[in-house]
Design goal:
The complex is a heterodimer.
Chain A: H1 2-26, H2 34-54, H3 59-73, H4 76-86, H5 110-145
Chain B: H1 11-52, H2 54-60
Classes of the chains: A mainly alpha, B mainly alpha.
Chain lengths: 146, 81
């Protein structure tokens, strides 16, 4: 649950930043492209996860139903990743999309790769920190309920 | 060179992107802080109640009224101390 909550926040940031990128690139904030649509569905699937948990009173049933839903909902993540490879889309394939120097190519240049790995490292550290704090909060809550 | 278009200035979008990322993360950190603070407050209240009325709690847990099991599920375990 802690990981899903933090992921929900990070995925919301991803969608919002994608929208900000799309404005100068595509001249629109949002379009129903397969990548954007599947990303929005993933966000909604995990938002529904918390609604499901809120709706069940029994802690054991809540944990079991939540775990099953989270596993099934996890399918939406690879679907989002492969959406731009499986369907016709205007979204660029930036990872393993082909030769970056080729005309019309969108693969990342070495400078872009460096920036991406630095950002990946930084956000991984932030994720671990938030995740650890969320687990600590859940532990305290369980102790208080007991 | 003469007819080449100048690159679009997208600095505003970059700043907006950083602002969105920091604001959303800051809001989440604030929500974590508030939830932690509320939990601590509840814990302190419970501890104060426990300290304030230990006699009432002890009388409520007399051997007759004390249940045979300590957990809520009803499975038999060692008697409560």
């Amino acid at each position: 649950m802690a990981a899903i909550e933090v992921s929900l926040v990070f995925f919301l940031i991803t969608i919002m930043l994608g929208s900000i990128w799309a404005r100068p690139a595509w001249n629109t904030w949002w379009t129903w492209d397969p990548r954007l649509t599947t990303a929005a569905i993933t966000e909604l699937v995990y938002l529904a996860y918390f609604m499901l948990r809120q709706g069940i009173d029994d802690p054991d049933r809540r944990a079991r139903f939540g775990a099953v839903y989270a596993l099934i909902g996890g399918i939406s993540a690879p679907i989002t990743f492969y959406a731009i490879r499986l369907f016709r889309t205007i979204h660029p394939v930036v990872i393993a999309g082909g030769n970056p120097k080729a005309q019309g190519g969108f693969d990342m240049t070495p400078d872009m790769l460096t920036a991406m790995f630095v950002a990946l490292g930084a956000f991984t550290v932030i994720f671990i920190d938030l995740y650890w704090n969320r687990i600590r909060l859940a532990t305290w809550k369980t102790r208080l309920n007991d | 060179m003469l007819f080449q278009e100048a690159a679009a200035n997208t600095n505003g979008y970059m700043i907006a992107g950083y602002a969105v990322a920091f604001i959303v993360m800051a809001l989440y950190v604030v929500s974590l802080y508030i939830r932690t603070r509320n939990l601590n407050r509840d814990l302190t209240t419970l501890e104060e109640l426990n300290k304030a009325a230990p006699a009432e709690i002890k009388t409520a847990q007399t051997p007759k009224s004390r249940p045979q099991t300590c957990n809520q599920k009803g499975t038999k375990i060692a008697p409560c101390n």
